[in-house]
């Protein structure tokens, strides 16, 4: 078989011939059949070429272009994945927002490589359709050769197929970055791909691969949660990064506290030796959990937070349990010591509620904010809270509600960043009976109407789509809401508090946030200071320690050694209060009633300026074996490896490129 193309011989020295010959030489070099990649050809690519030649018998000279499946074939592929396509939509749109400047097109395929959903920042391009970047295109590796979707599915690992690394020259202008999507059993059920015809620099490719992989993992978690809607969900996270990103293990529980489905736990710090054995077994066989004595909740669910200790592990993990409204809380494993503690800590915890004065502490900026709020709280002025993630904007908003005349009325929280764009309109405005397929038979009132008489808190309002900003503006201007499917407006009256970590004025100048809406929500504008910027940082840390100790059931707050407290003061706290609470829970779980020493603080704490110092030494590249060891220990998670090496992600990418390292299959 002539894979070089009809009429090509040794004397036909075309660029295509030279490239093809080099690729084939690489995959056939070893006598024992082992695959060995060239300096610029990843192993996963050369392995794919070998399959194309040896297994699939593909002929590069006879390829007529991508196959497009029939309408019936497309429907057969898409119907079983309706739920996955639905939950993936907001994640794909978020990814598109990040890669759109590089002219990427995002595709979601089924496990057979058929493109089911395609999103582009520009109008459909016939040139892209001719190379298969369209819904219905068949990207199976045995059909389309080495390519992003097909090769990621065949190899079960993320890949970047850059231009001439494609088996067929039809795709030589494409750079395809893809990652498989797995279900809870570890089976590939789909693939996510970002493709571009732009001649992208090699530096951007690892960044795109990292974003595609992260998006695929988030889709897996959304799919898991949607499949188990109505069940209690237990999350176990090994460290801070997992607690913030949700990369740990999730278990869907029945009323008896037994897992009916498990996502994660097959690798890394949370590796469980026999994941299948967890299904149907009491959690006490796998872990012990020390819950806080006070849970948080709303009308849809309640949440408990605690410290978990997995069997055969010596390091505590973070645990959170979310119980849907109306569901019976499962019976889960609890530390024996927790059941023996006296009721005194409960009284302490009850006294730890943070009102405006407690939130302000001795910080002059926060003190001025509180004085402003007390003066204007009932003057019908909307409040806009801005500040970094984790600075306590929701707690501050709740405290504003509690000092006003409407304190006994509803306080309705809507997180604009967590509701899928396809659902946010019905969540906000409600709908009438039979408005759309899958709607509740009795309709839905809508969260805005639920806030009538009280306070509506719109968290991360900067993430609200522009089309819905227009509808919200109409609600605020006219004081009425019209549910979907209805022509009859409903009068509403509420205090409005909005929050965002984004610079809304910058978004206004960029056309991503309506100017008229901004001036409707920004009657009182307050910037909450970060933890590292607070003048009373030491007092905040000690106060938070008292609260966390009470929540964990300790009768007294443990002492903190001078060196440990110095570490707490020196850390930059990029996650602010959220990060501080996690760090203190970890320290308390490790020390119990004993003194909190430096060794009992989480390993990810680092002094202020450590990142900058690490970057100043960015050209001092570790030796190849040491760098590979760190990457493998962190499962090639760039964020975790960068934290361990105390450098930025950009510095680590530069080191990887300098040493010509490739992510293994």
Features:
Beta-Lactamase; 665 residues; 39% helix; seven-stranded antiparallel beta sheet; 6 domains; 27 helices; alpha+beta
What would you say this structure looks like, in words?
The protein has 665 residues and is an alpha+beta fold. The protein folds into 6 domains: 15-62, no CATH class; 67-225, Beta-Lactamase (2-Layer Sandwich); 228-340, no CATH class; 364-527, Rossmann fold, CATH 3.40.50; 531-600, Helicase, Ruva Protein, domain 3 (Orthogonal Bundle); 610-658. Helices cover 39% and strands 16% of the residues. Strands 8, 9, 10, 11, 12, 13 and 14 form a 7-stranded antiparallel β-sheet that branches. Strand 9 (249-253) and strand 10 (259-263) form a beta hairpin. Helix 1 (15-27) packs across helix 2 (43-55), helix 12 crosses helix 21 (537-551) and helix 26 crosses helix 27 (649-658). The protein is globular and about 80 Å long. 38% of the residues are buried. Residues 5-12, 30-39, 333-352 and 608-619 have low confidence and may be disordered.
